[in-house]
Each structure stands twice: as C-alpha cells, then as structure tokens.
Amino acid sequence: MSGALRKIVHVDMDAFYASVEQRDAPELRGRPVVVAKRGLRSVVTAASYEARVFGVRSAMPAVRAERLCPQAVFVPPDFARYKAISQQIRAIFYQYTDLVEPLSLDEAYLDVTEDRQALQSATATARAIRADILRETGLTASAGIAPNKFLAKIASDWRKPDGQFVVSPRRVDAFLLPLDIGKIPGVGKVMKTRLTAMGIATVGDLRSVDADLLVARFGRWGWRLHELSHGIDDRPVQPRRAASQVSAEDTLREDLPLAELTPHIERLAEKTWANHRRKQTRVARTVVLKLKTSDFRILTRSFTPAARPASAADVAAIACALRDRVEDDHLTRYRLVGGGLSGFVDAETQPLQASLL
Predict the structure, then answer these.
(1) Longest Cα–Cα distance in the chain
(2) Sequence-distant (≥ 6) Cβ neighbours of residue 57 within 8 angstroms
(3) Most buried of 38, 179, 201, 203 (most Cβ within 10 A)?
C-alpha cells in the first residue's frame, strides 16, 4: 500500500436493467428475464439472476441465450428509464460525498474519507447508502469497501447480490494473494492465458515475479500488474472525469466482407465527429476502429497521427486505413462496425491534421 489512506466505496447495482424490469412488472419477479430484443443480430444487454443460473450473460448473442434458457422472458431495453433511475441513485450518493465517480449507469466509486453523515465508518456509510437506494428505488445494490479503487471494485462482487464486503488495510494481503489472476480488472482471457503460461495463477504468484520481467513482457501494463499485486492503486476518485473516448457503432443488417465496410465506416466517422464536436471541449488525437465478426470476435485498431484529425473526412480516411491493416481471408464476415476518437488533449497543444498517414 502507498499514499494517503482513503476510504473508498464501490457501489454496484444488482442486475440493474433486469431488476428494473422485474420491479416495474411484478409478474416478472422470480422469473428468468433477459433484457434484449429477440432476433439473430441482437445481443443480451442484461440478465436477471434467475437467467444467469442457466449461463445467460450480458453481451451474449440473444439466440444463444434463448437456447440456454428457453423459458426466459425477453424484454427490450429502455435506456431512458434506466438513466432516470440512475440519476435518482446518484442523488443519494451526493448526500454522503461530493467525490463520486460514475463508471456507468449502474456503478460508481465514492470517496467517503470525510464522514459527512457522522456514521463513524465507511462500512456504515456503505450500508446506509444501500438502504437508501432500496427504500427510494426498490432496487438492491452491493458494495465493496477498501483503501483504494482497485480493491473496492473486486470486493463489491464478493457478496452479490444485496451484500457488501470490507477489505481493511490490515487484511489486504489475506484477501488479495489467493485471488485468481483473472479477478484483476483488465486481465481478460488473452492476458490470463499469457500469465498462466508464465506459471502465474494467483495474485500471490504475480507478486513473486520480478517487476523488470513483467515490464519486459508487457510494458507499462507490466508495471501496473506489479503494483496491483501489492495492492497499490493511488488513483483518486475523479468526480468530473473527462470521457476517454467518443464513439459510435452500428450492428449491420447483414454480415459483410471487409472490403464492403467503407460506406459504414464513413457514416460512423461522421457520427463520431458530430458527437465529438457536441460533447468535448478538448480535441482528440487518436482514431479507433472497432469490428466484430459474425462469430463475435472483436478486433480493434488505432492510429495517432502527428497532427490531430481536423474533420469527419480525416477520421474516415484514417479509419479506412486502419481497416486495411486487418488481415483479410476473404471468408470472414463482419456484423458490427464502430468508430471512435480518443487521446484527448487541450486544443492549443496540438496542430491540425495537415496530411493523412
């Protein structure tokens, strides 16, 4: 551990979208609910705990969810309603602290180091927040309480649903070292496979690896893994966190080969540029292309030119060039195209794009 001791709470709503649907339609309570449109091209937005018993998970193709759980009730998502409830929940957070960092509609970090409500502990504060959410919205939330964001996020999943778990400073090692390496946020299937090949199965194994070796293998992410294995995370809760990316994506009406994606990339570049101009006071340096294949593999490519993109046409040209970097076997078909802008900086620090690639 390093830095000043903080009291961080990570609040995570329980199966939020599905729970809202069950709350508002009593006949759905106790039944497996899948928030998704039916159809070959639809994906699961959320699943109730009753549906998760059958293996249904978010981001899964809806047709697979239906095969796993034929008795599931499919409900189309209503994001306007979810957003309104999320704002109601955030208002509760602000009764306890001004240091609130929303991660999505259904989760947020709170720094409750200052005991505004005189509840004597972060544990009591988390319990009070969860009780307020239940009373005012009829929904349950889980919470993790720890000295930093990394540990709090892992802990919030420990006693789901409708529970909370505390990682006190003196219990960090006892909690952290036995954990499966996949519990570290950012360690997905590919990274876990690479770490397993190095003989790393737990956080304790990771801690025993020399930091220089991790950096040699994984660059800056290797150093980050070294820090996390020691429970070090000095990131503050950021109440007004700037967007890290502005993006737009569309699921295509039919799967297309790589060579036929140009008009879709250009259309999304226009949309992304418009979102950027409307929402961002800073400027973007990096263009991101996202593709999803018909078998749901996700491919991303990014490029940071010497001078920042100056128009939707610049974004489209760079994104199409990124498309050309994807290895094409002429058999693969793509179901989704996405475009994004990231790497935001102050406008005066970056010249306009003069020439492309």
Answers:
(1) 64
(2) 44, 47
(3) 203
Counts of helices then strands in the chain (DSSP H, E): 13, 12
Across the range 177-189, mean pLDDT stands at: 90
Task: Give pLDDT tens digits for 213-267.
Answer: 999 998 888 999 999 999 999 999 988 655 667 888 988 989 999 999 999 999 9
Distance separating the N- and C-terminal Cα atoms of the chain: 44
Place of tokens 């409500």: 117
Whether 107 sits among the annotated catalytic residues: the reply is yes
Question: What domains appear along the chain, each with residue ranges and CATH number?
Answer: 8-15+80-173 (3.30.70.270), 23-77 (3.40.1170.60), 177-229 (1.10.150.20), 245-349 (3.30.1490.100)
Confirm if 61 and 103 have CB atoms less than 8 A apart.
Answer: no
Q: How far apart are CA 103 and CA 162, in angstroms?
A: 19
Please provide residue 192's backbone torsions phi and psi, each rounded to the nearest 5 degrees.
-60, -40
CA distance 80 to 101: 21
Q: Residue 106's closest CA among 89, 122, 94, 91?
A: 89
Q: How many residues does the chain have?
A: 357
Run of H or E including 75: strand 73-75
Place of tokens 């820090």: 227
Residue 41 C-alpha from the chain's centroid: 22
Residues 6+ apart with CB under 8 A from 70: none
Of the candidates 50, 101, 107, 266, the residue annotated as catalytic is 107
Mean predicted confidence (pLDDT) in 283-287: 87
Q: What is the dihedral of CA 349, 350, 351, 353, to 10 degrees?
A: -170
Residues 6 or more apart in contact with residue 32 via CB below 8 angstroms = 47, 48, 50, 51, 53, 54, 56, 69, 71, 72, 73
Token pair listed for 163:
């529970």
Please, which residues have CB within 8 angstroms of residue 201's CB and are 6 or more apart in sequence?
180, 181
Per-residue confidence (pLDDT) for residue 56, from 0 to 100: 96
